[in-house]
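WARN retry 2 of 3 for item q-0093 after timeout on previous attempt; input resubmitted unchanged.
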Amino acid sequence: MQYEIFGSTLPGVTLTFQSGESIYTQSGGMTWMSDGIRMETNMKGGFGKALGRLFTGESIFMASYTAERSGAQMTLASSFPGSIVVLELDGTREYICQKDAFLCATPGVKLSASVQKAKTGFFGGEGFVMQRISGQGLCFLELDGTVVKKDLAPGEVLKVDTGNLAAYERSVEYSVETVKGFKNILFGGEGLFLSVLRGPGRVYLQTVSIGEFATRIIPYIPISNN
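OK item q-0093 returned
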């Protein structure tokens, strides 16, 4: 399978299939496609896994698309200004991603729920349930804003403002810490907590989050007095 990621503010990805190749995405994820692609909607993995996906921000039903001829193309687009990132999974790496990050994947990739510890769930800014990506194949993520990839060495620590952590390899230790200093808490503008990442492993950071973006524009939304 070949792919081309295009666009900047609202990117998309075009997949070019060989005959028999397929991908799956959440219901309604397809933007446009050529002739020669068969669609099938199902729960993928049964009701239990489908319910788990619901808590990660995805739909219960998934749509599978299979090419009936070589050269058939399909395009999927991001739903928020940001970036599309591709994960090439070899069966040994797993990633934990923010809610709604999953865009599409080849059949060998597994999408499931990852339940966080109490402290990181409450204060980490990502919630209690995140998405776990595992298996083998290609997986495409839609992340917010501009994305930076960092590979942390063993023991290397990175501190991130809550909401700016998009995805991290499962080998990375993820925790939260309280911002130190009374004046820093009151006037620093960073909130009470920071996400702490300890290597080894790969991390994806985003310059903005949907939640932060919504908070900033709410004061400018007209409110009707009627």
